[in-house]
Amino acid sequence: MAAHAPQTVAVDGRPAAAVLIALLPAGPEPHVLLTIRSQEVDHHKGEISFPGGMIEADEGPQAAALREAWEEVGIRPDEVEVLGPLSHFVTRSGFHVRPFAGVLPRAPYDYRISEVEVAGVLEVPLGHLLDEANSAYYHTTLHGSEVIVREYLWGEHVVTGATAWMLRDFLRLVAARMGREHV
User: Fold this and answer.
1) pTM of the model
2) Of 164, 162, 169, which Cα lies nearest the Cα of 95?
């Protein structure tokens, strides 16, 4: 991650948010932490996401990602080894999202879930996400351009939208580090 130069996007008045893409040292391979949004949140009920949310006026993006992970699932900010930032992403709804990758100290992790925001936690093996057989694709228009969007499948769960886009960016970096390609 230290050599990675994330693509940045000017905020330009967009609402700013940050997320944490957390890896857990689980067994023979790391797992990626994802959350299932509750039915009580205002937007994207039941969707799969990374812990994260709005950047407050008195904090930076990395601090926001860590604070949100603490508030949503009880990950202590001082226990996260932050690997670095990933490329910015602008969602269809106009949010400017800044993802950060980090490693948790242990698995299993003793989550403290905010039931108002999170219905559940998923820990998906990295190898599963890197395996093409566990993906699906569709065409859509994003910011005026037609794009092919990848979805990631985990049991009955589908990781799609902005979360899948950021996950793909992260997995490309991981695959490159492993000498593999991930499209």
Assistant:
1) 0.90
2) 162
